[in-house]
Amino acid sequence: MRWTLYHKGAAESVLGNCTTYLDSDGSTKKLTAAKKAELERTIKEYATSALRCVALSHRYDVDSLVDVSKCTVGDCAEKLEKDMCLDAIVGIADPLRADVIDAVATCQKAGIFVRMVTGDNLDTARAIAREAGILHDDGISMVGEDFRKMTPAQLDEVLPRLQVLARSSPEDKHILVQRLNGGLMPTTEEQWLDVHPGKDYATQKDKLLPGHMDEWGQSRGGGVGEVVGVTGDGTNDGPALKAADVGLSMGISGTDVAKNASDIVIMDDNFSSIIKAVLWGRSVFDNIRKFLQFQLTVNVVALTITFLSAVCGYKPPLNAVMMLWVNLIMDTMGALALGTEPPTKDLLDRRPYKRDASLINRPMWRNILVQAAYQLGLLIFLLKQAP
Known about the structure:
single chain; 11 strands; alpha/beta; five-stranded mixed sheet
């Protein structure tokens, strides 16, 4: 019995491992340099038209090269996936969903930097990214092979303009997340050596990606990094989803591993649903701030008027039971009124808060103090002048 290997994969990679090709009449012909150049031009033409290029190939009598019953994936890659016969090159159209372009534009308007990390050919990735509005004229696009060769310092230089990473592996996505937010970055020598076995920690800890936590912190002047959201659907996306501040997995096409590693599951697999998550996240944060501002103002006034009355020798206007009722009513009614306010699209017209942004900012302190001073003045006037 003859065993035949059938192989498919990235067109340019499969083409590089072929020495013959199947002609239109079904005959096998030698893959000359001229024919290979012609096929490479075809691949580039497909890729620049936003088509995903896949090549199909085969190799006969592989049982003469390996023991088929014991052959591993590594054996296939090392011994069998070469000197193959090219069967076809296919350009697959995967058009963008109608809502993607508007969703990307909305995210960018909201201050969210959208990056595309894909396993597609670089030309294909560029074409799709430009169509979606992700890649701009001043943006940088590169392949995973070049990405992995960079030092942490070199990567930090291109990160502000890196918009497309093509022919990337799941590990590339993980490293990108780590350099952006410092998530799961090696902090000890043992952790670094787990990532880079056989390397010299003393001389290479600042030279190999993803770097080291000390180096990462120094490169950002002690800053806290970016807030990173990552989408993924595959098992291999688990580490990147874990390292991200917000991991978003696909509810329909996503694997259980990806869903368990993520924070949010997008049930309809639509990119536009991310906007809803951003909108509600900002709304909840702003509602908490509104409630805190309201609650602190009431408490500051109540405590201050009671304290001043006791110090000045007056009868306290609020006893313990009254204070309890004030807090009970203010907590309940304030929480219902301010904590359940629905989101508005105006929330997407501003940039996101930084990771280290204070829950109570300066405008809130100003409002609390000014409003408390006004209420205190009015209450003191009423207490002294009222009959």
